[in-house]
Design brief:
With about 450 residues, the protein is α/β, with parallel strands linked by helices. About 40% of the residues lie in helices and about 15% in strands. A hairpin with a 2-residue loop joins strand 7 and strand 8. It starts with 5 loop residues before the first strand and ends in a 5-residue tail after the last strand.
Length: about 450
């Protein structure tokens, strides 16, 4: 049996008087689709097929009103320009995500993006994570420039290579696929990956890439990873055409309030995407809000399908708590990376206790000084229905396996990068009462982002 978390949930209003209900919106559904394209030399046989398929789809939209309801953006990625100066760029935002009455500029930019590098890059893996990170940050998904936010948000990643390991000196940042997937899902952006498994890659390389891209391409329980076995150009062109046409069909179906399409016409995950989109869109246009008072029990897993998650538990943390976790993890990673011998490993816990002692002198640092495990220093995590290697590892377990130490350190590094991003993002923090100190502002942290 799979473990299942039961939660007693409750909600009370912040104000004594009920908040006024929002007025239903009259805006039609609009979709933003960003193509993130690998334009390194190895993509040369496929980039033209990508361009052809994308141009045909955009051109087919143009005659109708649907063309003005779909907005497109294009970003290319390659590799580290310091490693290979002739590569020209690591990422290149070729076309911003904007509403356009005329799609000809999109077609032209897609055609221009089909120009691949003439210089080889070091190794087979490319910095696709930098491409995804920029696609999340540089495009205006949320209406920052005064525009209305997009209802449907999709990134289509096209590549024949795996992502760089965060430890690779040529990788731009320590962010991993799991952290990028979390950030994308929190912003209601689905990442859909078309992975060309060419003969040049080899089984081991393809397995490595697939593992990361499957993690990256999850959206509310469904997988949007599409491997093209053997790297066939015809199979690839058919896959990308079918994917974009299916997305257009479900988006237009929601916009026109059409009934769900029959299952044989669309892949199950695309139908799931349509359900999620319809629910969010109807909630917005009808001004739907949660009731002021809720109390009851909910199951983490769906009753109709116990393999699927129905809810996502989160922990309400203060900025001081998250800052404490970030400072502590930073110290652990730095100390752990200095281990080169058994003697270093034996001294590690003593050094950690020194760090804990120094942190405890800071009144804003929420640290437990008598911890017997690495995670025990973060006392506010200990009573949660959540466990990790960090929370349970003791000095004896730490000494048993160098591989386990490496797994822990490699898992902490990308989480630390994500914590720092959250700490410096004012939009994720909420004051629970007027005049609350900055350190007491709170954020709903996903359980899977805990250390």
């Amino acid at each position: 049996y799979e473990p299942n978390l039961l939660l007693q949930v409750a909600s009370v209003p912040l104000q004594a008087e009920p908040a006024p209900r929002s007025q239903p919106a009259q805006d039609p559904l609009e979709a933003g689709i960003v193509f993130v394209l690998d334009t390194t030399m190895s993509m040369d046989p496929f980039i033209e097929a990508t361009s052809t398929a994308m141009q045909r789809i955009v051109r087919d939209l143009e005659p109708d009103d649907a063309g003005t309801r779909f907005s497109f953006g294009v970003l290319s990625f390659r590799d580290d320009v310091d490693a290979v100066p002739g590569i020209e760029y690591r990422t290149n935002l070729r076309l911003p995500l904007e509403r356009r009455d005329d799609q000809s500029v999109v077609i032209e930019e897609i055609r221009e993006a089909a120009r691949v590098s003439t210089v080889s890059t070091p190794g087979f893996n490319e910095d696709s994570m930098a491409g995804i990170e920029d696609a999340l940050e540089l495009f205006d998904w949320d209406g920052r420039d005064g525009e209305r936010p997009f209802d449907a948000r999709v990134i289509v990643l096209v590549t024949d290579a795996g992502p760089k390991d965060p430890r690779d000196p040529f990788a731009r940042s320590d962010i991993s696929a799991a952290e990028l997937q979390r950030e994308a899902q929190d912003r209601n952006i689905a990442i859909m990956t078309l992975h060309l498994k060419t003969r040049a890659g080899g089984p081991a390389q393809h397995a490595y890439a697939e593992g990361h891209y499957r993690t990256l391409s999850r959206f509310h329980g469904s997988s949007y990873y599409y491997p093209i076995e053997g790297g066939s150009r015809d199979a690839f062109e058919a896959t990308i055409t079918r994917l974009i046409e299916s997305l257009v069909a479900v988006i237009e179906g929601v916009r026109e309030d059409a009934p769900d399409p029959p299952a044989p016409d669309l892949a199950p995950e695309i139908v799931d995407f349509g359900h999620a989109l319809r629910l969010a869109y109807l909630g917005r246009v009808e001004g739907t809000q949660a009731p002021d008072l809720i109390r009851g029990w909910i199951s983490e897993r769906a009753a109709e399908n116990p393999l699927a998650l129905a809810i996502e538990p989160r922990l309400l943390v203060s900025k001081n708590e998250l800052a404490t976790m970030a400072e502590y993890l930073d110290a652990l990673v730095q100390l752990g990376e200095q281990i080169t011998s058994t003697e270093d490993a034996e001294q590690f816990f003593g050094q950690v206790r020194e760090v804990i002692g120094r942190m405890a002198q800071n009144p804003d640092s929420l640290i437990a000084t008598e911890a017997e495990t690495l995670g025990g220093a973060l006392e506010f995590l200990e009573d949660l229905p959540y466990r990790s290697q960090l929370l349970t590892i003791t000095p004896e377990a730490w000494m048993q396996s160098a591989m386990r130490r490496r797994q822990i350190l490699d898992g902490l590094r990308p989480k630390l990068v994500q914590y720092r991003k959250w700490l410096f993002d004012p939009e994720v923090w909420t004051a629970l009462h007027e005049g609350a100190p900055d350190g007491e502002h709170v954020f709903a942290l996903p359980f899977d982002a805990l250390p």
